[in-house]
DNA sequence: CTGTTAGCGCCTTCAA
DNA sequence: TTGAAGGCGCTAACAG
């Protein structure tokens, strides 16, 4: 039952003594084709295991029904959650997803985008890497008529489409919770200073303290380069302060993991001597003996979903529209 | 600088008063074209930002330089590690990867394969879902000339290409370690009984006990459906035995997480009252206060890499060859 | 309702 | 060394 050559419209037409266009129309349920003809065509098509040659259709329609997704790393649960939703939205729209991991390497990121372009994807969803500085690729793609929507880790530019989590509301909630538990010495372990995401966190942190009339102490704000060593150094710096903080908001869960480990090794009791809340990216807190008090959830699934639907709107739109910015509120989730 | 219509070979030919065929040949460094012509063509091509239309090439060459990857879930670190290596191998070969998550749903799995087929991928890499029983899709793909290589979770059939971890060597090592630590009451929390992977584990477990002259007790072998509830039920069953085991090998890390949590809740001390080793799929053990003694590593990266290179061999081969089976040895990695 | 014609962009004989 | 012609499979404008 193996077909050496897959059946074509031509073949069906020949056998049925019809023209290829009639067959094509019949297969696509074109209204102008008689019911009987349509039936005959479909029956034979089924018999021959006919399947339209997508590559021919892509070629003709100048559309590939494919979108590209570029993100730093699939092994981050945040992104695997996001891409799952993206996949779902794409499937509904009958689109296929091509995915590439930049691994925070700008060159690799560029190569992936190049591939996506030559593959003529209809659109791109992207979360940029930590080290990406050069945004010229955006014009490259948009110049080729490929719309692009950024999500989560987005460039600090006004004229691009982006979907992000606000970072602020969660931070304010976190500080509210800390304060209501009696904490006043609240520190921030922030990410690399030049990351926009770090600037936002810092701003929110300061705003949160201000709301409670707590003075901002410079020594309570430390940075990490997000490596395990950097994370450890950051917490040690805080612990060595004369008046060490009793509560810490950390850049993300991975930072929190390293930091909490270091705290344990120092012989301090988690959730007693010192308390943590971090921006969430889904380690398996529920299995830990001493998880952080709470996490600031950023809803990767929602972000991915929204970014994808936005992209499809752009793909379907004829005109290029004004850049769209969508902001999701982050929210504190207790890990109790 | 935005091109409304991307440049084509025809366009270049028109401007240079050459024929399209000459331009095509020049761009492909065909030896029969004069050096000067080739230069002129290439220069103009660069100027016009000419890029070959892949969709046209795919169509003409009857090849898409695309491979599909189907796996249960990206959120399992095992698979994200595997797909990263697959991506790398594919990139080297200048192939693109289309990925789909089955989420252990056979219908969804089938839909993904259908999509891959209509997209005319050149080959498929696949790890089947837990609930997949019907393997007819294999003929569907191979009938269409699409080679398929299974990895990790593979069908229990002889005539397919597969790359797996052996499961046995790691289990034997695990039992060796337990025994050398003085354990004799060694239990197995296995997966669903009808999973080939469960049968293999059980066989290895029995072999391991036999090697040490330890009698196999039926009540020390329990099964879980891999849900959190099933995992908890399994360990409770073991704990309720009159002579409860002091050492347990569990189906995988996720089972171990649930199981160890239940053990803690029962007030037992991990790594004291009861010890664990599990087949690894990468939770963040290094951050845990009481990780399992060791993990049986299955090298997802290696498996993915091997499966991918195998697939490319099959794609490049003219003839259909005998099915290939590759087995990686699993190995015990201490979590000390 | 159905057929004819033409062309998407590229490559590849065949002919000059 | 170059050009002309044809075709991959499908669709769509234009005729009947």
UniProtKB/TrEMBL annotation, chains A, B:
The record's annotation in CDD domains points to: HTH_LacI, PBP1_LacI_sugar_binding-like
Gene Ontology molecular functions: DNA-binding transcription factor activity; transcription cis-regulatory region binding
Question: Quick one: signal sequence residues?
Answer: none
Look up the domain of life of the source: Bacteria
Question: One Pfam family from the UniProt entry?
Answer: LacI
Q: What UniProt keywords are attached to this protein's entry?
A: DNA-binding, Transcription, Transcription regulation
Q: Where is the HTH lacI-type domain?
A: 7-61
Q: InterPro entries attached here?
A: HTH_LacI, Lambda_DNA-bd_dom_sf, Peripla_BP/Lac1_sug-bd_dom, Peripla_BP_I
Q: What is this protein called?
A: DNA-binding transcriptional regulator, LacI/PurR family
**What is the scientific name of the source organism?**
Parapedobacter composti
């Amino acid at each position: 039952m193996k077909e050496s050559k897959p059946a074509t419209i031509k073949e069906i037409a020949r056998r049925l003594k019809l023209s290829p266009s009639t067959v094509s129309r019949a297969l696509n349920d074109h209204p102008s084709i008689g019911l009987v003809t349509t039936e005959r065509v479909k029956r034979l098509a089924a018999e021959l295991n006919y399947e339209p040659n997508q590559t021919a259709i892509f070629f003709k329609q100048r559309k590939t029904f494919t979108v590209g997704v570029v993100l730093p790393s699939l092994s981050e649960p945040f992104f695997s959650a996001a891409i799952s939703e993206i996949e779902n939205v794409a499937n509904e729209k009958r689109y296929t997803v091509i995915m590439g991991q930049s691994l925070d390497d700008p060159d690799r990121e560029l190569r992936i985008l190049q591939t996506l372009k030559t593959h003529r994807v209809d659109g791109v969803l992207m979360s940029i890497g930590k080290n990406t500085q050069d945004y010229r690729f955006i014009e490259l793609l948009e110049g080729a008529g490929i719309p692009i929507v950024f999500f989560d880790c987005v460039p600090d530019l006004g004229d691009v489409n982006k979907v992000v989590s606000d970072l602020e509301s969660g931070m304010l909630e976190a500080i509210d919770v800390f304060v209501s538990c009696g904490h006043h010495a609240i520190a921030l372990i922030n990410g690399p200073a030049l990351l926009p995401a770090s600037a936002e966190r810092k701003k929110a942190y300061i705003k949160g303290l201000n709301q409670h009339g707590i003075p901002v102490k410079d020594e309570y704000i430390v940075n990490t380069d997000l490596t395990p060593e950097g994370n450890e150094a950051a917490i040690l710096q805080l612990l060595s302060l004369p008046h060490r903080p009793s509560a810490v908001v950390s850049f993300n869960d991975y930072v929190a993991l390293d930091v909490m480990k270091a705290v344990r090794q120092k012989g301090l009791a988690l959730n007693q001597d010192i308390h943590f809340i971090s921006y969430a990216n889904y380690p398996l807190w529920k299995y830990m003996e001493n998880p952080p008090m709470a996490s600031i959830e950023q809803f990767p699934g929602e972000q991915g979903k929204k970014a994808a639907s936005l992209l499809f709107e752009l793909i379907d739109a004829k005109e290029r529209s004004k850049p769209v910015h969508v902001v999701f509120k982050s929210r504190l989730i207790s890990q109790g």
